[in-house]
Amino acid sequence: MPALKYIGFIKEHDDNFAESLSFDDIKKSVYENDLQRLPEIIHYLGHGAMVLAFMGYSFDLETNHPIGGNSIHTDGVWVWPFYFPYYLDKFPNYPLDQEFVNHLHQQSFKRRLVSKEEIEIVCDQVVLYFSKRDPIRKET
Q1: pTM of the prediction?
Q2: Which three-class secondary structure string do you get for the chain?
Q3: Residue 139, SS3?
Q4: Contact, 119 vs 1, CB < 8 A?
Q5: 52 touches 126 (CB < 8 A)
Q6: How far is Cα 83 from Cα 41, in angstroms, rounded to an integer?
Q7: pLDDT at 45
Q8: pLDDT tens column, 44-99
Q9: Which residues are bridge partners to 73 per DSSP?
């Protein structure tokens, strides 16, 4: 399996991902997404295969209203947090990686079924990536 690609992580929610953007950068972004395709992108992201779920709940960084349980999703190539479609809908200028947008166009915005075996491989890779960025601390 090729290396996974990460998108949609926000530092204030997930600072362990090198690809995380700051919430201020997202709010101030003037990036121009294809607004006609945005609903399809949001729908695609909202239907990814769940790879990991964590105890806890995340809250909107502006309003502090609950937005959902913490989880990470994939299409087998890209990995994103559950909150990505929420914030993309809220901030249409949320910067999108052009490679990700091209990937969606190549698939005609239709998510393929990710097998259980693929989910397990992705899960292992995400956990390994995460553990390299946040090593387990020794108890004192």
Answers
A1: 0.89
A2: CCCCEECCCECCCCCCCCCCECHHHHHHCCCCCCCCCHHHHHHHHHCCEEEEEEEEEEECCCCCCEEEEEEEEECCCEEEECCHHHHHHHCCCCCCCHHHHHHHHHCCCCCCCCCHHHHHHHHHHHHHHHHHHCCCCCCC
A3: coil
A4: no
A5: yes
A6: 13
A7: 97
A8: 999 999 999 988 899 999 999 999 999 999 999 999 999 999 999 999 999 999 99
A9: 50, 80
